[in-house]
Design brief:
Elements lengths: L4 E6 L14 H15 L4 E6 L7 H6 L4 H25 L4 E5 L8 E2 L2 H9 L3 E5 L9 H11 L4 E6 L4 E2 L11 E2 L1 E3 H7 L6 H9 L4 E5 L5 H6 L6 E4 L1
Parallel strand pairs: 1-2, 1-6, 2-5, 3-4, 3-5, 6-10, 9-11
Antiparallel strand pairs: 7-8, 10-11
Helix pairs in contact: 1-3, 5-7
């Protein structure tokens, strides 16, 4: 195994599957099975999920919501997704623990690094919800922070695209895929891999990122096995 401990970042939108909003149960089960396959290999798995399938704070602010309250609504959306994923994992025999960045007992336990690491070392999946607990920070930044805190070997950013391209491959058929790229090149080329705060945190703390297609079953296991899937971002 190439990695002992990973931080998996999933977007809320990916949980929609073919639906317009909310959670697609089939997609949720597929994700849970991919995660279970990795856990069975003895890899420690921490997860952060976005909330865009339910509510996105920034777009809410554009519709007249107070930005802070909008971001707090988005944090709650991530908790709903985290509970759904923990339920799907437990259904197939994988123990999971939801840790929240804001006090929310008994829905989830209040996050601390030590609680998270204990969970991982017991072989349970730790799901980190409610972002950083602060407005104006994205779940990308939340996942960078948690990945650094738990001393993950790598952050795996599961998306619907199979890596980083010179342009959006869904809009530009001539876009070229990178197999690897440095953080400095991402800045220079203005590529939108994650928001700048998250990218800078990973760069400064030497946390590599692999962007890959999570919607293809089996890809997560290929990534942790060290196969050339997706794009590696490094210093």
């Amino acid at each position: 195994m190439k990695y002992k401990r990973i931080l998996l970042k999933l977007s809320g939108e990916s949980l929609m599957g073919n639906k317009q909003q909310g959670i697609d149960e089939q997609r949720l089960e597929e994700y849970a099975q991919q995660i279970a396959d990795v856990v069975k290999r003895g890899i420690q798995v921490g997860i952060v999920i976005g909330g865009g399938n339910i509510f996105r704070g920034l777009s809410g602010a554009g519709r007249g919501f107070d930005r802070v309250k909008g971001d707090q609504m988005g944090m709650l959306a991530t908790v709903i997704n985290s509970l759904a994923l923990s339920s799907a994992l437990e259904k197939i025999g994988v123990k999971a623990r939801v840790l929240t960045a804001v006090c929310m007992e008994p829905i989830g336990e209040f996050y601390s690094k030590w609680k998270a690491v204990e969970t991982l070392e017991r072989g349970e999946v730790a799901i980190f919800s409610a972002g950083t607990g602060n407005p104006y920070f994205t779940t990308d930044t939340g996942s960078a922070l948690r990945g650094i805190e738990i001393e993950a070997d790598v952050m795996l950013k599961g998306t619907r695209v199979d890596g980083i391209y010179t342009a959006d491959p869904e809009k530009d058929p001539a876009a070229i895929k990178f197999t690897e790229i440095t953080y400095d090149e991402i800045y220079a080329k203005g590529l939108k891999v994650m928001d700048l705060t998250a990218t800078t945190m990973c760069k400064e703390n030497h946390l590599p990122i692999i962007v890959f297609d999570m919607d293809t079953p089996g890809n997560l296991l290929k990534v942790v096995d060290g196969e050339n899937v997706g794009t590696v971002v490094h210093n």
